[in-house]
Write a structure and sequence with these properties.
Elements: E1 2-7, H1 15-25, E2 29-33, H2 44-49, E3 53-57, E4 65-69, E5 73-77, E6 91-96, E7 99-105, H3 116-135, E8 141-146, H4 170-181, E9 185-186, H5 187-191, E10 201-202, E11 214-215, E12 218-222, H6 224-227, E13 230-236, E14 250-255
Parallel strand pairs: 1-2, 7-8
Antiparallel strand pairs: 1-14, 2-4, 3-4, 5-6, 6-7, 8-12, 9-12, 10-11, 13-14
Helix pairs in contact: 3-4
The protein binds one DNA strand of 15 nucleotides through loops.
DNA sequence: ATGGTTGTTGGACAA
């Protein structure tokens, strides 16, 4: 089972990029973030014509997530529990071939000092609680997406410059570790403990891509039952270098059948 | 230190 995650920064703007990449990469499941369109504006016909079943949670202008699969997806959940009126489209979860899979778009949280940062932390608390309930099922669980979390100093080109940023400050990293400490592994770092300069995002500004000034913020968290089947996790940098690219690139996970 | 870019949308806001 090959599962990819990709923050596409507008699915309509990026449709040719995504279609072209899918034809080459051939994942079984694609998790999308930052659709930037309402559910009804998602290019459903294009994906269905290409053989994809689409679970879409959209929102006007911002956010938006989707789970695309070649096989049937069942028991779809369109929000993270515990929201209490949270209308931001940041979570979709479904079962594909016995694996519980989520596409999530964790809040950015900047600037710290505004209500955006406590919203991020509260969202992470909700994710932690839900991740714990998923663990109790004792099934393979894959939580993939744009976490907006830089796990460690090896995951950012200039750690000092990012020390107070919402993606890297201690409180954010500690909360991320709390989720791992429930019993999840972060697939890429588990397989590549010493790899450096492995980024999944490069800002559009200041030539970040050309200078390889990137961040690793797109992750897969795996329950023990999924971790036992983990065979590969790689970042595919190729789409970031294409014309009209998203500022994120795709990360691909492989689980044994 | 500042500004640098992109997307949605038609002026900011988000990233």
């Amino acid at each position: 089972m090959r599962i990819a995650t990709w923050n596409v920064n507008s699915v309509r703007k990026r449709l040719p990029n995504v279609m072209g990449w899918l034809a080459d990469a051939k994942p079984d499941v694609l998790l999308l973030q930052e659709l930037k369109c309402e559910t009804g504006s998602f290019p459903l016909a294009d994906f269905e014509a290409a053989g994809w079943r689409c679970q879409v949670v959209g929102q006007k202008s911002y956010n938006g997530v989707a789970l695309l699969s070649r096989e049937e997806a069942t028991d779809v959940v369109d929000r993270l529990p515990g929201g209490d009126g949270d209308e931001q489209a940041r979570y979709v979860e479904a079962t594909v071939r016995g694996i519980r899979i989520a596409s999530l778009y964790l809040p950015n949280g900047n600037p710290v000092g505004t209500d955006k940062y406590p919203y991020k932390l509260a969202w992470m608390d909700r994710l932690k609680a839900h991740a714990a309930s998923l663990l109790a099922r004792e099934i393979p669980v894959v939580l993939g997406g744009d976490y907006n979390v830089i796990p460690g100093p090896e995951d950012v080109y200039d750690p000092a410059a990012w020390s107070t940023d919402a993606l890297f400050r201690q409180e954010t990293r500690a909360k991320f570790r709390e989720i791992l400490n429930l019993g999840y592994i972060e697939a890429f770092r588990a397989l590549h403990p010493t790899r450096r300069h492995a980024y999944s995002f490069w800002d559009y500004q200041a030539g970040s891509w050309q200078r390889d000034r990137g961040l690793r913020i797109d992750h897969f968290l795996l329950s023990p039952q999924a971790a036992d089947r983990l065979t590969a996790c790689e970042i595919d940098k190729s789409p970031r270098g294409e014309p009209e690219a998203s500022d994120h690139t795709a990360v691909i996970l492989e689980l044994a059948d």
